[in-house]
Each structure stands twice: as C-alpha cells, then as structure tokens.
Amino acid sequence: MSGTFSLDGETHEVDNNVWVVGDDEQCVVVDAPHDVDAILEVVAGRTVKAIVCTHAHDDHVRVAPALRERVTAPILLHPDDRPLWELTHPQDERGHLWDVDLEDGQTITVGGAAITVLHTPGHAPGAVCLYVHDLGCVFTGDTLFQGGPGATGRSFSDEDVIKESIREKLFALPDETVVHTGHGDDTTIGAERVNLG
Ligand SMILES: [Zn+2]
Q: How far is the CA of 123 from the centre of ligand 1 (A)?
C-alpha cells in the first residue's frame, strides 16, 4: 500500500508491503502502514493475535494504534526503537507506547506456526526480522531487500551494524529461505548472500 515516509525533515512517497501470517482462524499482522481498512481486508475476519512491527519508521507503524482499536490486539516492538516510535506516536498522558517488547530469540505462535524474532539492528536500532521455519521464509522489514541491505543514511541507522546483523542472523538461515521484504519484491537468503559477498 502507498503512503509517505518522513525522517530528518524529508518526506518521500513509498509503497509498503503488509504481511499477514496465520491460518483460517487467526493471524499476526506484520507492520501497519498507511491504511487500516486495507489491512483488515487481508485479515478477512480472522482473529488478529498481534501487530508485530519490524521497526518503528512511520511508514511501518503509522496506523498500528488505529488497527489495535479495531482488532483488540497488542502492538509488539523492540524497545530499542522507542525514539523512532515517539517521533510518530508521542506518548499520551498515560504514557502509553506500544504494548509488548520484542526480544531476540522470542517465539510467537500463530495458526500452528512458530515465528522466531531475530533482533537485527542497523536500519533502525530496534529492527527485527521474523523467521518462520515451518513456512521456509523470513520477513525482513527494511533490513534486507532484493539487492542488498536496507538504507542506513538517516538518523538512528548504522551501515556496519546492519551488515553485521545480516551476516550473523540472516545468513545463518538456509539458502532457500524466501525473504519477504518491507518494500518491493521477494528474494532468497542464498541470492542475497551472493550479492553482499
Ligand atoms: Zn524503515
């Protein structure tokens, strides 16, 4: 879905991917960009167990609180992304932020599948990837795209750290693992291992 991304005083038009993981009964929504109704169309009446944010750039979390109100599910985010979250969703008078902290190695189960949280800082300090062994895929947010690592030119990003995260956490996965990205087309771990060298 289309919308904007703003940071460091600049605003860009962006197309974001939204991923919904689960079975016919229940699901987890990965990122909440731009448009609640469009996300709910994909959810199609299933119980949403969680809204998992790959990182807190505004194009990934802008409608997370609005979606939470419609489906009564907790928002999960790695706490290292708090400064980015607060740029988009400043604390209200109750000090409310997201609901549950993500941590490296944590498992989220949905529809019989286990989602493993991999903390992969670099694009953002609290960036995570979500590995689903049963489906042979990983949701990488903006950490790894078809063609290489995510952008690290803006505030709160670090190029050396993202490369280390990719090498340590993502390249530990099997080559045939399908990579579902936050923007653009799928790739595989094997293809990106060759690209990054
Ligand atoms: Zn981002």
A: 7
- For residue 176, give the H/E element and its range: none
- C-alpha 71 – ligand 1 centre gap (Å): 24
pLDDT of residue 197: 66
Q: Tens digit of pLDDT for each residue in 100-154?
A: 999 999 999 999 899 999 999 999 999 999 999 999 999 999 999 999 999 999 9
Using the mean position of ligand 1's atoms as its centre, give its distance from the Cα of residue 5 in Å: 8
Q: Across the strands, what pairs with 181?
A: 141
Residues near 21 by Cβ (< 8 Å), separated by ≥ 6?
27, 28, 30, 110, 111, 113, 115, 130, 132, 135, 139
Taking the centre of ligand 1 as the mean of its atom positions, its distance from the CA of residue 98, in whole angstroms, is 17
